[in-house]
Amino acid sequence: MQGVILRGIGGFYYAMDERGTVHTLRAQGKLRRERMKPKVGDWVELTPSDGEEHGWILAIQPRRSELTRPPVANIDVICVVVAAATPEADLALADRLLVNARRAGIGVRMAVNKCDLDPARAEAIARQYRGAGVDPIAVSAARGDGLEALRAALAGKVHALAGQSGAGKSTLVNALYGLRVETGDLSRRIERGRNTTRHCELIPVAGGGMVLDTPGFSLLETDVFDPVELKASYPEFVPYEGKCFFQPCYHATEPKCAVRDAVAAGTIDAERHARYAALLEETRQRWRERYD
Length: 292
What we know:
The chain is an alpha/beta fold. It folds into three domains: 61 residues, CATH 2.40.50.140; 152 residues, 3-Layer(aba) Sandwich (Rossmann fold), CATH 3.40.50; 62 residues, Ribonucleotide Reductase Protein R1, domain 1 (Orthogonal Bundle). Helix content is 25%, strand content 24%. The protein contains seven helices and 15 strands. The chain has a six-stranded mixed β-sheet, with helices on both faces. The chain has a five-stranded mixed barrel with strand order 1-2-3-5-4. The protein has a two-stranded antiparallel sheet with strand order 6-7. Helix 2 crosses helix 7. The longest helix is centred in the C-terminal third of the chain and has 19 residues. The radius of gyration is 21 Å and the shape is globular.
């Protein structure tokens, strides 16, 4: 029998089979010996409990994609959520999330939440990411703006909403699917959200697909990798690849760079390019220190 792991707590895993029945399972010892730890989102071979306390996970099927933090597998799309109002949008974090998702082979979208509170700021954020392959959608979890468009974009997919605390991820999940995912009030003193989600859980939703309710995305760091690979995670650079004077070109400070020319012409957003240059420098530093 096959099933997908919805959540895992204290060594127990809860997997839903193809008929919708949820089974309580533990991983067989051979998986532990092979250092194959099940993750939420894994499709597994299982044997049901047959009246016992739990059944068993016999094998983990090959993963289409996976992340180490949070530990999830087989996510189709990560929707990065930023806020047009408090808290101030951490777009450097948004860029990191997009890079990490693309490097993991996961599709990406973007939702600019709280657009009703500051429409001009919502449009300014969305403008930076047009052409970046995320199709930003302005939404309001409170008022309902853009929810139908976002729901359609995520329909039938295993997806997660990621972003800084306080951006309204859980509230947005509730508004999209009529769920009761726990939410936290924004701390007015420090203007930073309290992370109320305690564990990763896949939730089947109406219309097909599943949404991942999870902590951890606001703490995500990019992996250590060759800095020249970073530009591949910026789709807006692709039309200019191979047109620079120097090859390879990092599109940061080099003269006669087609990407920098596009930034100067306003074709590529200057603020997003500046954050790219900062992330590139950080990636270079981490690459130099990878053996320390």
